[in-house]
Amino acid sequence: MQKGQILIVDDEEDVREVIQDTLEELGFACATAGDYNEACAALSGQHFDLALVDIMMPGKSGVELFQEMARTSVDTGVLFVTARSDLRQAVSVMQSGALDYVIKPVDLSALERTVIRAMEKREETLAVEGARRSLEERVLQQSQLLEARLREIAALNRLLQSAVEARSEIVEVGEQVAACVRETASTLQALAQRVLQVSRLPRSDTEALGG
């Protein structure tokens, strides 16, 4: 069963071949590159779980490749291959995110342990990152849901306010109508009383009023 895809980047062909044979015996699928440009081409055309990168190479160094991968191949873990003279630099780049390093000349038993440990560390890192992204997505979804609920509440509040204002207008109109009715009733009552008074007068007095 294939354990993962590994890119081996080293300007020494014999070193690449020895590392490739060792890792393929462990069940890894390997590809190789002799310099920065070949490595970038390989990374652009295929996904790798891990890259073993020689720090010192002709042209652009392994550190420059690591920096490029941090922008373009963020899911690929990096394991540095370094001479003892470059050990301090290897330790320094580990603080920037490299998983580990192995020292030249490569001890194949140490290489196996280091690669397996690096793959496990990468899986743990990806799992944590996946959990973080999942949590961020859930928080975003809940935030969007809350915003939608707040908009609904605001709309209901505006509707209620409109209803209250409409009710106030209805009450005001009702009061005006009631006042008008009372005034009309009062006028009609006065007119009725006047008619009644006139109807009780003698005929001569009503003729006089008519004249």
Query: What's the CATH first level of the domain at 5-130?
Result: Alpha Beta
Tell the overall outline: rod-shaped
How many beta strands in the DSSP annotation? Answer: 5
| Class computed from helices, strands and strand pairing | alpha/beta
The largest pleated sheet is described as:
5 strands, parallel
Strand order of the main beta sheet, please?
A: 2-1-3-4-5
- Tell me the CATH topology of the domain at 5-130: Rossmann fold
As a percent range, the share of strand residues is: 5-15%
The stretches of 5 or more residues where confidence is low (pLDDT under 50) are none
Termini separation comes to 128 Å
Overall radius of gyration? 46 Å
Would you tell me the overall average pLDDT?
A: 84
Secondary-structure arrangement, i.e. CATH architecture of the domain at 5-130: 3-Layer(aba) Sandwich
Q: Please give the count of helices.
A: 6
Secondary structure: helix percent: 55-70%
CATH superfamily of the domain at 5-130: Response regulator
What series of H and E elements makes up the topology?
A: EHEHEHEHEHH
Description:
With 211 residues, the chain is α/β, with parallel strands linked by helices. It has a domain at 5-130: Response regulator (Rossmann fold, 3-Layer(aba) Sandwich), CATH 3.40.50. The protein has helices spanning 13-25, 36-45, 62-72, 87-94, 108-200, 203-210; strands at 5-9, 29-33, 50-54, 77-82, 100-103. Strands 2-1-3-4-5 form a five-stranded parallel beta sheet, sandwiched between helices. Strand 3 (50-54), helix 3 (62-72) and strand 4 form a beta-alpha-beta unit. Helix 2 (36-45) packs parallel to helix 3 (62-72). The longest helix has 93 residues, at 108-200. The model has no long low-confidence stretch (mean pLDDT 84).
